[in-house]
Specification:
mainly alpha, 7 helices, about 0% strand, about 70% helix, about 240 residues
Length: about 240
C-alpha cells in the first residue's frame, strides 16, 4: 500500500469504531413504541357526597408542568448547541496553533483534538435526542389532558371543542419527524463532526496528503460524507419508536 494512504486507513478505522460504538448505544437504548406506564389498580370511587376535590386544579397544574418541561427542552437544546459550537471553536483555535508551530507540538496533536471533538459531538447528539424525546413526552402529556377535557367538558360538545386543538394524541407529530429545529441542530453537529474527521485524518501526515491530494483528500471527503450521513440516520433511527 502506498505510504500516503496510511492516514486514510487510520481514519477509516476510527470511522468504523464510531459506527460500532454508536450502533451499540442505539441497540441498548432504543425506546419501545408502547410508552404508557403500568398503572396501579384503580381504587373504588368515593361516594358523591364525600368528594371535595376539584379535578380542574390538578389538571391545570399537570398541563402547566407538561408545558414547562416542553419549553425547557427547547431552551436546553439552544444552550447545548451553543456549548458545542464553543467547544468546536476552542478545538479549531488549538489546531491552528499546532499548525503554526508555536506550541512546538506535532500535527498529530491536532488530529487528537479534532477526533476528540467527534466524541464530544456524539455526546451532544445523544443529549439532543433525549431533549427531543422529552419534548415529545411533554406534548403527549398535554394532549392526553386535552383528550380528557374533550370527553368531560360541560361547555362544549366534544366535536366542537376538538376543532380548537390542532394537535391531539393521534395527530401529534412523531419524535422522528424531520425539518424542525432539533433536526437542524443534529445536522449542524453532524456537519462539524464530519469536518473534524476529515481534517484530523489529513493531519496524520499532512505533507503526504498535500503531495497526493487527489487520492487522499478525495477518499477522506467520501468518509466525511458517510460520517455526516450516519449522524443524520442515527438521529432519526434513535427517535423512531421501536416496534
Amino acid at each position: 500500500m502506498p505510504g500516503y494512504l496510511w492516514p486514510l486507513l487510520i481514519t477509516f478505522v476510527f470511522f468504523i469504531a464510531n459506527l460500532l460504538v454508536m450502533w451499540t448505544v442505539l441497540k441498548l437504548n432504543r425506546r419501545p413504541r408502547t410508552l404508557a406506564p403500568q398503572l396501579p389498580p384503580r381504587p373504588e370511587p368515593a361516594p358523591a357526597d364525600l368528594r371535595n376535590l376539584s379535578a380542574g386544579e390538578i389538571l391545570g397544574w399537570e398541563f402547566e408542568y407538561a408545558r414547562t418541561t416542553a419549553s425547557e427542552a427547547m431552551q436546553d437544546r439552544h444552550t447545548m448547541v451553543n456549548f458545542y459550537l464553543l467547544a468546536a471553536g476552542i478545538v479549531a483555535t488549538g489546531v491552528l496553533a499546532v499548525l503554526s508551530g508555536e506550541p512546538n507540538l506535532p500535527p498529530l496533536t491536532g488530529t487528537i483534538l479534532l477526533w476528540l471533538l467527534c466524541a464530544i459531538g456524539w455526546l451532544y447528539l445523544l443529549k439532543l435526542i433525549r431533549l427531543r424525546q422529552s419534548w415529545h413526552d411533554s406534548a403527549l402529556a398535554m394532549n392526553q389532558i386535552k383528550s380528557f377535557y374533550l370527553q368531560h367538558s360541560q361547555d362544549f360538545q366534544p366535536d366542537q371543542l376538538q376543532a380548537a386543538f390542532r394537535w391531539q394524541p393521534d395527530t401529534l407529530p412523531p419524535p422522528d419527524r424531520g425539518w424542525n429545529v432539533f433536526a437542524y441542530s443534529a445536522a449542524l453537529i453532524g456537519l462539524l463532526d464530519s469536518v473534524a474527521l476529515v481534517a484530523g485524518g489529513a493531519l496524520l501526515d499532512l505533507p503526504a496528503v498535500l503531495a497526493h491530494p487527489a487520492p487522499t483528500l478525495g477518499l477522506l471527503a467520501l468518509l466525511g460524507l458517510a460520517f455526516f450521513a450516519f449522524h443524520l440516520w442515527y438521529y432519526f433511527a434513535f427517535l423512531k419508536l421501536a416496534k
